[in-house]
Amino acid sequence: MFRTEKIQKLVAMGIPESLRGELWMIFSGSHEGYYASLVQKSMGHNNLATEEIERDLHRSLPDHPAFQNPTGIAALRRVLTAYAHRNPKIGYCQSMNILASVLLLYAKEEDAFWLLVAVCERMLPDYFNRRVIGKEPRSFICMQPHLSTLSSVSLSWFLTLFLSVLPFHSAVCVVDCFFFHGIKAILQLGLAVLEANAAELSSSTDDGQALMILTG
């Protein structure tokens, strides 16, 4: 319903700040639900996930004013803890804090929670190895000696939707495209990075050099 040519052009040019959170919510297919009761149920539970969340709270956009005060940190804690309680099979993993903090900048707290649900449970299926390899054999061939490096770097790219590696204003445009186009937007960007660096990667002699090429 929302995939019109006009909306597609808007996404390509960059969604206006005032509309970003609302459109992300529409694109994701998320919905309001039981967030308040989930927050209530998760309060007071201490486990490995909550310990890891506490460690990462102040590492989430530490330079942004929204997370330099107790209010912002508390909202981030609720979203992450509620998700870990909802889905103990996934629980919490590093990168969720970065993603959730950006979602909170553009969406209401409950909406940010449902966006996180959509990303973790529906929009980021298994993307590595076969899916990437099949689409760009040349890039894969040059990375074969450095598969462990590609695995760690791609986790940073994909699980944070490039929020951890691109300038903020560029990264949120990537998120725009992700919520509109789905996983293919992230895969295409990752493949473009590999293709742009294919020559250097082919001549790299060790994992450290390959890592510098991909993160430099």
UniProtKB/TrEMBL annotation:
Q: Where are the transmembrane segments?
A: none
Q: Which Gene Ontology MF annotations are present?
A: GTPase activator activity; small GTPase binding
Please report the stretch or stretches of sequence annotated as the Rab-GAP TBC domain: 14-182
What name does the UniProt record give this protein? Rab-GAP TBC domain-containing protein
